[in-house]
């Protein structure tokens, strides 16, 4: 039984105007004549919200009433991007809103620009979570996303003399019209203290129980965000937790009178959700980070059990109602937390609790780099979460018994598989804990899942082969095609209807259009218009000028040595060198604009060096009269989802050039292919699947394969040998080393040069020549616009597989076994 719902307004222009003015006057408290752009934006956001509200309430009510099996996605990051446009297209309101605003003399485009995107993630993993919740809503799957409402999201990047400088991201400062705070559903989270054993009388028996006596507590306040499905009546919820001091602090103020100290304690508690950690590999074992992880996971489990299940629900049946999907190991502390709830609070026997827990969790791994695997020192974990550490020890004891049993006491194996590492310090290996607890463990692309089985988690895959599966990543076609590329969307819809937006395999129907010269011409027109849109955007935003009508060559992703931005910049240096030295006539060069976008983790010195190098090379290239006629470098600062949405649709060439075996999947690669860029890429991550689908003729493959790279490493890699034997490479590196891009100062980029010549962990030099050769093929292909656009159209037509809707179907079939709600 629920109260009657106020229904959302009917979508008409007059109605929209009325709703809009009501918001402006009654909620924003201003009138049109005096309203700032931000006032107008906030009023618009709230107006759009109205149109989704009854769907949201209805979806929630249905969920609570019918109690279907739900997916609870646990992720420390959601890189959502701007909300306004997505809400407008989901509600099919763009035209109505635009006309209504126009009648008031307001340009919708100006208000779009006023939104600060919620950057609550670092990169791929956080954006993936955002795509997944979008797809789940569009597929009417009962699902909830749980995460952290960071007050400061990913830092804003600035360049000072070409070097990265970070600034805090004040994304909440202008108001946050998309969130709904629910302080009445606050959850208390405990930390620290100790455990004690108590004996209890249960009937005739005395039983020993462990009790956690916490040292301090914080409150979690949920903030709900709408996750609208695309025109299907379903609006799911994303629930992000914000930390507050407990009311106990207020009491202390009263009793003690030490006001300043009490307020300090308050800030301390509220620090937990203050800031997103900007590292996306080599995590530092920071105490606050572990606090964040436990904080959001404890809130989420409590919330699911108390708010989403009926009162008195028998938790033995929890696996019938939910799968908690662990987005990497960041939420893995949920495993001992559920055990604690079941054993300590609900009185379950250990084995019973373990069976329930194992039925409720699944784990997605997103990495292959050993240094990116999370470990938490036992000392730290035990101090912050003493009861959880005890539970982890017991899980490990029982698990290792199983390993001994099945291996005939192979103690080496036992040590390798243990959840507890002994060296260099005693620490909990979160990936092992996740693998032991989960019903399923998946990688994020075929190659990655294979390498997990064969290398990273090989011992576990031998013990439990059926536990391991693959789900190749995907991206939402709503945001990354429909919204980001209206030109291409229109062209596709004209050709094959609009079903592709929610059924991306239909793009296959475009294949014949690749051979239609008129379609290709229009495709090129769309590209050209997208490039113009990008040029205007970069001009306004950064004062960067990019020439019209050049090949747009784009490398956007976090800055990491394994992703090899250095390989790309060495290509640029080589082109520069060849032209400047007269070896190459500019007339023979296909004019190109190379665009970079990348943030470096603030503590990652080498990554920051590489950013400096790119900017310095860019300055020299762009200032050179001959070179700059055919080659430009643009590096707009602060690459984010909003930039991606204008950049990707304009791209001709997508750079996916990680060393094979290092990039788990990549998802940018998919966005580019879907927007009709051709890929120059290694045989890595999802590139492998992209190439298989689009065909070798429509993909520029280069570089070592994973087994080849592994063999080279095994045999002892010597980068200097490549330097000595390849004069082109030598000239490029020498230019950098001699200070060509640093005003003659050889010290500036010395660390990069000596790293490449000495260790070169990611084999940039080994792949250099192969990359140059691939770029030659790119140039040749680009010279034939008809052939190029044919290949580009085929990339679009054959990339439907990379919809995150397909990823969700795979998770549903292979892992979650949940079903859509009836409309
Ligand atoms: C962990 C502990 C402490 C601090 C930070 C972290 C942390 C945060 C973010 C560790 C890793 C990340 C993010 C990883 C990530 O984005 N991985 C990417 O995930 C994509 C989606 O599956 C893949 O496509 C990429 O290949 C993978 O690099």
From TrEMBL:
GO terms for molecular function: 1,4-alpha-oligoglucan phosphorylase activity. The keyword Glycosyltransferase applies. It catalyses: [(1->4)-alpha-D-glucosyl](n) + phosphate = [(1->4)-alpha-D-glucosyl](n-1) + alpha-D-glucose 1-phosphate. Its cofactor is pyridoxal 5'-phosphate. Its EC number is 2.4.1.1. It is an enzyme of class 2 (transferase). This is Alpha-1,4 glucan phosphorylase. It comes from Isoptericola haloaureus.
């Amino acid at each position: 039984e629920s109260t009657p719902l106020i229904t959302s307004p009917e979508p008409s222009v007059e109605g929209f105007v009325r709703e809009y003015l009501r918001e402006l006057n009654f909620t924003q408290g201003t009138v049109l004549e005096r309203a700032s752009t931000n006032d107008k934006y906030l009023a618009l956001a709230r107006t759009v919200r109205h149109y989704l509200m009854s769907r949201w309430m209805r979806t929630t009510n249905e969920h609570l009433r019918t109690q279907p099996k739900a997916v609870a996605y646990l992720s420390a990051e959601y890189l959502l991007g701007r909300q306004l446009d997505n809400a407008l297209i989901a509600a099919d309101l763009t035209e109505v809103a635009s006309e209504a605003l126009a009648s008031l003399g307001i340009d919708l485009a100006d208000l779009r620009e006023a939104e600060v995107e919620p950057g609550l993630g670092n990169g791929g993993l956080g954006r993936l979570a955002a795509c997944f919740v979008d797809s789940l809503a569009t597929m009417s799957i009962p699902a909830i996303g749980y995460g952290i409402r960071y007050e400061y999201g990913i830092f804003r990047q600035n360049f000072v003399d070409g070097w990265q400088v970070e600034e805090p991201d004040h994304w909440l400062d202008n108001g946050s019209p998309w969130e709904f705070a629910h302080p009445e559903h606050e959850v208390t989270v405990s930390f620290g203290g100790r455990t004690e054993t108590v004996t209890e009388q249960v009937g005739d028996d005395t039983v020993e129980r462990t009790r956690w006596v916490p040292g301090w507590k914080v409150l979690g306040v949920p903030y709900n965000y709408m996750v609208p499905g695309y025109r299907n009546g379903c609006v799911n919820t994303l629930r992000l937790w914000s930390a507050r001091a407990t009311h106990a602090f207020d009491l202390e103020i009263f009793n003690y009178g030490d006001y300043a100290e009490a307020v300090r304690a308050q800030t301390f508690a509220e620090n937990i959700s203050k800031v997103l950690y900007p590292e996306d590999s080599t995590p530092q074992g920071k105490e606050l980070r572990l606090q964040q992880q436990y904080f959001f996971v404890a809130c989420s489990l409590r919330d699911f059990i108390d708010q989403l299940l009926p009162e008195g629900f028998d938790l033995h049946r929890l696996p019938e109602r939910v799968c908690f999907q662990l987005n990497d190991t960041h939420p893995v502390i949920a495993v001992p937390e559920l055990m604690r709830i079941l054993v300590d609070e609900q009185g379950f026997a250990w084995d019973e609790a373990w069976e329930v827990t194992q039925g409720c969790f699944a784990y997605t791994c997103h990495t292959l780099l050993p240094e990116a695997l999370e470990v938490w020192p036992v000392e730290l974990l035990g101090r912050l979460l003493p009861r959880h550490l005890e539970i982890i020890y017991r899980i490990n004891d029982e698990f290792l018994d199983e390993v001994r049993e099945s291996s005939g006491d192979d103690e080496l194996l036992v040590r390798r598989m243990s959840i507890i590492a002994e060296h260099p310090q005693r620490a909990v290996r979160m990936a092992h804990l996740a693998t032991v607890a989960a019903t399923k463990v998946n990688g994020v692309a075929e190659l990655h899942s294979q390498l997990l089985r064969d290398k990273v988690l090989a011992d576990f895959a031998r013990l439990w082969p059926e536990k391991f599966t693959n789900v190749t990543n995907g991206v939402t076609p709503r945001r990354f095609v429909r919204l980001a590329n209206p030109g291409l969307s229109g062209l596709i819809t004209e050709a094959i209807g609009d079903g592709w937006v929610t059924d991306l395999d239909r793009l296959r129907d475009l294949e014949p259009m690749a051979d239609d010269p008129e379609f290709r011409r229009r495709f090129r027109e769309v590209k050209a218009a997208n490039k113009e849109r990008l040029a205007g955007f970069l001009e306004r935003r950064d004062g960067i000028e990019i020439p019209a009508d050049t090949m747009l060559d784009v490398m956007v992703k976090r800055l990491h040595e394994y992703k090899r931005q250095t390989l790309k910049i060495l290509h640029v240096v080589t082109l520069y060198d060849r032209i400047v030295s007269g070896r190459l006539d500019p007339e023979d060069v296909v004019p190109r604009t190379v665009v970079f976008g990348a943030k470096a983790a603030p503590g990652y010195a080498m990554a920051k060096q590489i950013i400096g190098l790119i900017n310095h090379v860019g300055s020299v290239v762009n200032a050179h009269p001959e070179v700059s006629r055919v080659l430009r470098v643009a590096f707009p600062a602060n690459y984010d989802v909003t930039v991606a949405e204008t950049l990707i649709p304009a791209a001709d060439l997508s750079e996916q050039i990680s060393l094979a075996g290092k990039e788990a999947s990549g998802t940018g690669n998919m966005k580019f292919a879907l927007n009709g860029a051709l890929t120059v890429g290694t045989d890595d991550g999802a590139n492998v699947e992209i190439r298989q689908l689009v065909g070798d003729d429509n993909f520029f493959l280069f570089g070592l394969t994973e087994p080849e790279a592994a063999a080279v490493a095994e045999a002892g890699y010597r980068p200097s040998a490549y330097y000595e034997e390849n004069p082109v490479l030598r000239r490029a590196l020498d230019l950098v080393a001699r200070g060509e891009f640093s005003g003659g100062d050889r010290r500036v980029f010395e660390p990069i040069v000596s790293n490449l010549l000495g260790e070169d962990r990611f084999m940039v030099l080994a792949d250099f020549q192969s990359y140059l050769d691939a770029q030659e093929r790119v140039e040749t292909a680009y010279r034939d616009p008809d052939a190029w656009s044919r290949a580009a159209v085929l990339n679009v037509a054959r990339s439907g597989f990379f919809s995150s809707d397909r990823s969700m179907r795979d998770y549903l079939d292979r892992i979650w076994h949940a079903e859509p709600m009836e409309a």
